[in-house]
Amino acid sequence: MAGVGTKEIKRRKASIESTRQITSAMNLVSSSKLMKAREKAERSKPYAYELYDMMIRTAADVKSSCKEFVEKREVKRRCFIAVAGDRGLAGGYNVNIFKSVMELRDPEKDMVVPVGKKACEYFTKKGFEIPFKIESTEHCVFDEMHEITQNLIQLYEDKEIDEIYFIYTKFRSALVQTVREKRLFPVELETLKQDEKKLDERERRNNPKKVEPRRQYLPSAEAIFKRLISEYTASQVYNGIRESFASEQASRRNAMQSATDSADEMLNKLEAEYNRARQSSITREITEIAGGAEALK
Fold this sequence. Notes:
alpha/beta; 4-stranded mixed beta sheet; hydrolase; proton-transporting ATP synthase activity, rotational mechanism; coiled coil; cell membrane; membrane
């Protein structure tokens, strides 16, 4: 029995060591991808910030002409842009996104624009209407996202949808990532006004003698605002996709690190168990030999 016990322990150890090699390799790959993803996410932010500054300045001059983008109306149908991962083994990363969408949606009316392989598989299986989709977060490009957001804005202008939400994972640090639910349309005008005041105060602090120039718009402030809001929405969503991809790599790295640590702990326990079983087997054999020697006397 002792021999069978040690063989079983050795088999389990070999299996866990094999799994540990996989989790350790995935941890290293995710760490490498995380560094690159963070760089891409940081590089995409300045463009979005500049667009937002221009948009809130233009919104002040457009005034009532941007009603279609800022006025709330009866919500009959909504659209959710949901960003999940391309792969699994990332802890609760994908599940948290799916849970957020399922809590907000009306399956009979709402539509979903999934971004990422796992999102496409999940919402297709659930039977959601999917007007557009992006198969990969890792290989998503700005032009692809820009085309989709333009089509969604057109649907919003045509009143085929009444609200557009963006659900993604905000990257805060390598250990902390949080799901964010952001309403893209209708635009919150009060938020724009507050941000305009903050922008003015910041510029006055940085340059007290600066004189605010008089702005002229060609062909018109309304046309410029419409173009800016389209560009800003696309850049905002694209930046969210980049942050989500970084969050996916961080979640996978944390999950694989946790799995590797658990494998190490199990191996240590099995090693101790194996030593006890082996020692017990040796003691039993010595006892049997001593007993046999006594019997021959």
